[in-house]
Write a structure and sequence with these properties.
mainly alpha, three-stranded antiparallel sheet, 4 helices, Nucleotide pyrophosphohydrolase
Length: about 130
Amino acid sequence: MNKTINELVAEAHSNAVSKGWWEEERSFGELIALMHSELSEALEDYRNGNFPTTMWYEKKIDGELVTAALQNDDTWKPCGIPSELADVVIRVFDTCGRYRIDLEQAIVEKMAYNATRPQRHGGKVL
């Protein structure tokens, strides 16, 4: 794979555009809400008893939803917490593509700053 973060940003945004998700402009608030909804789906999977590493695959065959432990081909939908977390990142990438945010540079800068912060900074409980 070996793509840079910014290459993945461009790819995610290009895919969203090609699938029609940008035919009408979305507000920044809507984009944040969509990111949040993917996190909520991950939380629901956890509340339903799924472990953070559990994955499964679904596909409708002859109108019936079929579940499998392994993905037979790319037409099977990945499900589970890892898939929902991937959706969060894809939504972030799409938004960064839309606004031309250099996410790779922002991550590098933020990680460098975070390394300078004191142990358990902020003292917040939750």
